[in-house]
Specification:
The complex is a heterodimer of chains A (about 260) and B (about 350). Chain A has two domains: about 25-40 and about 75-215 and about 220-230, 3-Layer(aba) Sandwich (Rossmann fold); about 230-260, no CATH class. Chain A is about 30% helix and about 30% strand. Chain A has about 260 residues and is an alpha/beta fold. Chain B is mostly helical. Chain B has a single domain (about 5-350), classed as ABC transporter involved in vitamin B12 uptake, BtuC. Chain B contains 14 helices and two strands; from the N terminus they run αααααββααααααααα. Chain B is globular. Classes of the chains: A alpha/beta (about 260), B mainly alpha (about 350). The interface of A and B includes residues 70, 71, 74 and 90 of A.
């Protein structure tokens, strides 16, 4: 479990975040929602231990994150952000192998190689393992990055225990095919008791995949909900400055949001 | 080209190339030494053969002049190759080399300051003795590189245009400083500065070679362990941090060690352009961008290339010699342009 206790972050005299407390539980898809500039990515980076908060504490299974050394933390949590560029032509396989860096010394073991294979299989890129990363399309590149973070927090009997995956707008510039693929794979990790924490911009995707919601506005947590049903139209209208209407999905019996200005 | 070889086979090939280049460089020049003669000297030196008085002059020329020169040019090539690789890793950009990032110009300014202001500042610098030039070159190179890096990187991303502009600005300031110093300098000092900006191996002697060699080995031993970290840094500072690397510490160490070897070498040799750019670029195109491969390979290939260029410098206008920096620019720049064209023809976006 990843806990945030009264976390604040300020740059100069501006509060980017203040008084944010949250508990991201294992086996859940936690979604951070909010308009641009609400502090979502900052919150995610603080929770991932990449950024030190100016106030409050971040705890992993009860341990303050600053007490964990970088490599130990890297074996327990991974971060996938959007559109990672690589100026040099490494192969797909080499990029995925980077996920194993915190696990081996100078030379990857046979187990590391097996895990890379496994991760490539999950994202259907086994056949393109030797292709240079820069020649892939944006969607394929993101699949490679997904395979890299999967390899990083791969669970097996040698490396059990709760893992955490952070997703920072992982699908923002991808078409719907890749969006669904990436969120499905992330959702699949929940069965292994992984904690997923995601910043998502597509609200309908967020409500479809998420099972705990944290709504940020101006650096403050204005709503937490453990079910999409509990997010009201009024909240969305105020926070995102839109008109929101819940519509019934004629095909499935579920519902979705329609937004207008 | 080297695609079908394993990394180990590629190292062997490059090592063989280096060995051939060293033999050539040891043998060719105003005095020629055949491989048989070199073999005899080696046997005599190791006490395996009696010393022949007839060899005295040849031996003196070889051991006092030729051998230090061969070692210094090899070390210079290796240092520039590795340095180019490290800097391209640091800036995440294939166009960076010590010249562009301000390291060379900053080091130049530091050294020129010692040449020109040496007499007045000697009281301060005297404890440093013969290390005064390398030390001041290091300070100048380090400051310049750090400024360029700081200005061009925001939130962990290096902006190429800002990098180029910052590099141009810092280079301009450093060159203006060096120019000013050579303007106010008296003749022998001014000539020292000119030698600096063109680069030469003619002044190679054992003290310098030893210093450069020791510094290079220390830096190389460190660099060889940074392959994974540099690979991870390709993804960006945040991604590297998420993989358990401390990017801030890595970057400061990269700049310190890289500047250390470039400045110490440049204090002996002067500014040698383009090697740091061409060597990693060639290896990337021919084989791989994996830093675990690039660092050792660029040391071997850089050394071999520099030996060959040094041979050319001795042969082009005998009995005189071309300053090495002129030759590397004349050969390096067109080769680099050709590589760029080839890359564009393949429309490989990897060129950045």
């Amino acid at each position: 479990m990843v806990e945030l206790a009264d976390v604040g972050f300020r740059v100069g005299r501006t509060d980017i975040l203040s008084g944010v407390s949250a508990a991201f539980r294992p086996g859940r898809f936690n979604v951070i929602l909010g308009p641009n500039g609400a502090g979502k990515s900052t919150l995610l980076r603080i929770a991932a231990g990449l950024l030190t908060p100016s106030a409050g504490a971040v705890r992993y299974a009860g341990h303050p994150v600053e007490d964990l050394d970088r490599e130990t933390l890297a074996r327990a949590r991974a971060v996938l952000s959007q559109d990672v560029q690589l100026v040099f032509p490494l192969s797909v396989e080499d990029v995925v192998l980077m996920g194993r860096y915190p696990h081996y010394g100078r030379v990857p073991t046979a187990r590391d190689r097996r895990i890379v294979e496994g991760a490539l299989e999950v994202v259907d890129l086994t056949a393109r393992r030797r292709q240079p990363y820069p020649t892939l399309s944006g969607g394929e590149r993101q699949k490679v990055q997904l395979a890299r973070v999967l390899a990083q927090i791969w669970s097996d009997d040698r490396s059990p225990g709760p893992k955490v995956l952070f997703l920072d707008e992982p699908t923002s510039n991808l078409d719907v095919h890749y969006q669904i693929h990436i969120l499905d794979v992330a959702r699949g990790l929940l069965a292994g008791d992984c904690t997923v924490v995601a910043v998502l911009h597509d609200l309908n995707a967020a409500f479809e995949y998420g099972d705990a919601f944290y709504v940020l506005e101006g650096g403050r947590l204005v709503e937490t909900a453990d079910s999409a049903e509990r997010i009201s139209a009024g909240l969305l209208e105020r926070v995102f400055r839109v008109h929101a209407r819940r519509a019934v999905d004629p095909g499935g019996g579920g519902w979705y949001w329609r937004f207008s200005r | 080209m080297l695609n079908r070889l394993t990394f180990r086979q590629t190292y062997l090939l490059l090592a063989a190339l280096l060995a051939a280049a060293v033999l050539l460089s040891a043998g060719v020049g105003a005095f020629s030494f055949s491989p048989a003669t070199l073999w005899r000297y080696g046997a005599q030196e190791l006490g395996l053969a009696a010393r022949d008085p007839a060899d005295l002059l040849g031996r003196n020329v070889f051991f006092d002049l030729r051998l230090p020169r061969v070692l210094l040019s090899g070390l210079t090539g290796a240092i520039l190759g590795v340095s180019g690789t490290l800097m391209q890793g640091l800036f995440r950009n294939p166009i960076v080399e010590p010249g562009l990032a301000g390291t060379s110009a900053g080091a130049s300014l530091g050294a020129a300051a010692v040449f020109v202001l040496g007499n007045t500042t000697m009281r301060v610098l005297s404890p440093l003795g013969t290390f005064a030039v390398p030390a001041c070159a290091f300070i100048g190179g380090f400051a310049a590189t750090l400024i360029v890096y700081r200005v061009s990187s925001t939130f962990g991303k290096v902006n190429v245009f800002t990098l180029l502009l910052a590099g141009i600005a810092v280079n301009a300031v450093c060159n203006a400083g060096t120019g000013f110093l050579s303007y106010v300098a008296r003749d022998p000092q001014a000539r020292n500065i000119t030698f600096w900006n063109l680069g030469t191996f003619t002044t190679a002697e054992w003290h310098g070679v030893t210093l450069v060699g020791v510094v290079f080995l220390i830096c190389l031993a460190w660099a060889l362990r940074q392959g994974k970290a540099l690979n991870a840094l390709m993804l960006g500072e945040d991604e590297a941090a998420a993989l358990g690397i401390d990017p801030r510490r890595l970057i400061v160490r990269l700049i310190v060690l890289n500047t250390l070897m470039v400045a110490v070498d440049a204090a002996m040799v002067g500014v040698v352009a383009f090697i740091g750019l061409v060597v990693p670029h060639f290896l990337r195109m021919a084989k791989s961008s994996d830093y675990d491969f690039l660092i050792p390979a660029s040391a071997l290939f850089g050394a071999a290339l520099m030996e060959i260029i040094d041979v050319a410098a001795r042969l082009v206008i005998p009995p005189a010699e071309l300053p090495i920096g002129i030759l590397t620019a004349i050969i390096g720049a067109p080769v680099f342009l050709w590589m760029l064209l080839r890359q564009q023809a393949r429309s490989d976006p990897a060129g950045g």
